[in-house]
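Good morning,

Both structures are done.
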Amino acid sequence: MCLFCKIVNKEIPSNIILEDDNFIAFHDINPKAPLHILAIPKVHVDSFNDVSGEMMSNMTKFIQKIAQEVKIEESGYRVITNIGDNGGQEVKHLHFHVLGGARLKWGHFSDADPQGHF
């Protein structure tokens, strides 16, 4: 059972923002923005490569509700999912980072060496 499945099962505490029958959202323990929330399906799905269109449709609505709940739907926010090792996925359970609360910079390549890759 993965870390996020344990959070879903309430075996590990989390600071829950929003929850329904299919999804749960909670604060990231290592925030990269003033608001950094993780949104996950309650059923285990390894990554974005494995998600169904139906689940994504429902996840989209859930993420929009998160933005409303934390009042960033007007000011703006970023939604990111990492896929696989090269994409930076650390937990092999589909999750979306919802970042907001400030004007976000585009610095996610700062730890990469793009020379010769383009």
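Second structure follows.
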Amino acid sequence: MTTAPATASTTTTTTVFTTMDSPLGTLLLSGPRAADGSFALAAVTAPGQKGALAAPAAHWQPDADALAPAVEQLTAYFAGGRTAFDLPLAPVGTPFRQQIWDALDDIPYGTTLTYGQLADAAGQSPRAVRAVGGAVGANPLLIVRPCHRVMGANGSLTGFAAGIDAKRWLRAHVGGGRLF
């Protein structure tokens, strides 16, 4: 996956969205579409997800075509035919959060890490575990950036913005996976 650089530009962008049915409920997918037609995925949210919009903002425009690759890849993931995503990404967050979110991409499918291990993988002190947990909880790209692969130090299903039942489903979907 590639994260589009956050640069100042005079290019006009429009936030576009679509929805898709999933085993977790109706997902809301959104991101910026530039005047040249290029698109990057900025958010994938599930029903009831903490800190996320439940519906598109009034100024967003529907654009199923721009989001078709993301819908296709998520559909394949839920069907068991895809284990990784190849999409241009444009999540909005602080440099620290971006660093943690980038580290999520490196957690292999079917495995998990603890928050401490993720901190280490992102080049952070193990003492930063609470800040790492906050960044993981603020991940705007649910499923695509696999925050559901991060567990508590004892392997417990701690925190998940879309709820523990959704995290449990995602873990079961990959056969439970290897812990740590």
